[in-house]
Amino acid sequence: MPAPTAPSRYREIEVSGSPRDLGRQIGEAAGEEIRGFCEIALARVNRTMRVSQNAAMAVVAESMQLAEDYSADSVNELRGMAEAARVSLEDLMLLQIRNQLQAEPEAGCTSLALSPTARAGSIVAQNWDNDVALDPFTVVLTRRPTGKPALTTVTQAGLISYIGFNDAGVGLCLNTLPAPARTRGVPHYFTVRGIYESSSLDGVVEAVSRAERAIPANIMLSTPEGPADLEVTMENVHVLTDEGPGCVTHTNHCLHPDLVGINDDFPELIESHPRKSRIDSLLTSTGDGGSTVDAVKAALRDHDNHPRSICRHQNDDENTGFWQTVFSVIIEPQECRMHITRGTPCDREYETYSMK
Questions:
Q1: 292-325: per-residue pLDDT in tens?
Q2: Is there a domain that residue 279 lies in?
Q3: Which of 64, 147, 265, 307 has its CB surrounded by the most CB atoms within 10 Å?
Q4: Would you say residue 49 lies in a domain?
Q5: Strand segments (E) across 79-216
Q6: How many domains are contained in the chain?
Q7: What CATH number does the domain containing 151 carry?
Q8: Is residue 84 within 8 Å of 26, Cβ to Cβ?
Q9: Is residue 97 part of a domain?
């Protein structure tokens, strides 16, 4: 008897209201996924290093007040989520601070952002290369918070924010950026949620800058002002804009002139330099800057240097070989929609999700 076919679409959830109401509705709709994610979160961290439960909860406690100071609304949303999903607030906060526990980067990704052209609107896209064990907890979630922009994200249930777009024309993707880090700080996903409450590049930069940050990160953006990339360290937010005609790309090493020296202090993450060269080559070779959704799909399906390719597959690397492209996402923020493959894009079709 043949094995059942995995579903091609992520489950869609929509919630609205006050922060506590948003959380309760998410907890009610995705309680199974939230509990499952909470159960495996620390174990997955411990695939690459050892962190005890007590040490992890100490980081949770240190970060909780900083998170509340940054966004009391986001903490209240987590409180509502915890109540409805029947988990503790601390367990949910552990999901938010997992990447603060790791001496090594959490994952690697290839991302890009493109200006609108006569043939297509603005695009921000990436392959999300991570632990395939997180797929069962992933949903497409639309939040309509009272008095703030609506946002749709593809996210593991329980996170306060992740990859997606808002209805103010901002879309974003997330990459790991190897650079100095610390355990104590505002969780990264809280600053991402702050970005979704913005409607301009200046607002986005302010949302990240005002946080006492714990970890470095790369944030690829489509904004009303055009494509941009933020290389975020604990001390600064460095903005990169068009490298060519309407195109910004990033993998997992620093590009800003003020930061390139950091690359010498950290091992290259999953062939970051070759992937950067390859995505640049693919986008420029199309003749239109890779500006159409179909051109971006083709680039994200690329297998040059397989299995350590842009479309990444599991391999024999003892530290990161279990990472693969868990999903590929292409976001059109002006149209309030995104296209996602549930699994590697070379053998899966992109499914379209729209904010209704």
A1: 899 999 999 999 999 999 999 998 887 778 889 9
A2: yes
A3: 64
A4: no
A5: 108-114, 123-131, 138-145, 151-156, 163-166, 171-175
A6: 1
A7: 3.60.60.10
A8: yes
A9: no
